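Hey L., structure's done. Input below.
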Amino acid sequence: MAISAALVKDLRERTGAGMMECKKALVEANGDIEAAIEAMRKSGQAKAAKKSGRTAAEGVVMIKISDDAKHGVMVEINCETDFVAKDANFEAFAESVADTALSAGVQDVEALSSSALASDPSMTVETAREALVAKIGENVQVRRLMRFDGAEGNLYSYRHGVKIGVVVELAGGDEALGRDIAMHVAASNPICVSADQVPADTLVKEREIFKAQALESGKPEAIMDKIVEGRVRKYLEEVTLLGQAFVKDPDQSVEKLLKQAGAQVKRFARVEVGEGIEKKVENFAEEVMAQVRGS
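Output:
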C-alpha cells in the first residue's frame, strides 16, 4: 500500500528513527503504525525513540559551495543544547552532512538521509546520525536542506556565528559585494528580493491593517487611499532586499548599491537555527520531583 508522508512523519516523531527506516517499517506493517512501532522496538531501531520527544532547537547551519560557485547547499542540523552544538563529534557530523549534500546532488532531507556519508561511505547519513545520538545522548536531526544549482551568476555566502546562514546568487559584482549582500540579508532578514515578489495575500493583509489604522486615527475618508498606499510603499521598502537601507551604509539602499556595481541579485536564502520550532520550557524543580516519584 502507499505510505503517506504524514504517516512517516508521525512514526518518526514517535520513535526517533530515520525517515527511510520508518517508511520501510510502515510498508512491512502494511500501514499499521502500532505494528510498525512494535517491530522497530523488537529490532532495536526505536531505541533512539527515547530521545526523539526532546526538542532539538539548537545546532548549526552549514554552507558548502562548489569551486566554480555555481552550486551550493545550506543545511540545518539540530541538537538539544548549545553545549552539544559545540561538541567536536557533532561538528564533524555536520561538516560531513553538508559535504554529502553538495556532492550527492540530493534535493531534500529524505534523499540526503539515505545517501552515503562523504567522510565514511560505509555509513549513510541516517546511520551516522543514529550512532551520534547513541554517543552524545541527545536528539540530533537533519532538519532542512536548501540547494542552489545552475546559478546564472555566482553564489556567495555568509554565516553569522553558526546559527544564521545566507546564500546569495549575484550576477555581476565581485566576491566582496556578494559577501556584503549576504551579510545584509543575515542582519535585515528581507522576505524577498523585490516588491513584485511579495505574496499577493501578504499585501492584502497589510492593506487591511493599514486601512484599519487610518480609520482608527480619524483621518478624512478622502485621503484614506493615499495614506494606505503610502504605508504600503514604506512596508515594501522595509521587507524587500532592494528597498532596504544597506546595513553598512544606511544612506543608500541595496538597490542603489547594486546599480552602482552593475550587479543583480537573482535569489537568496536565509536559514536560522530553530526557526519555527516551539521550544519546550522546562521547570527544573518539577523535573527533579518527577524523577524522584518515578524512582
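The mean pLDDT is 87. Residues 88-104 form the longest helix (17 residues).

-- N.
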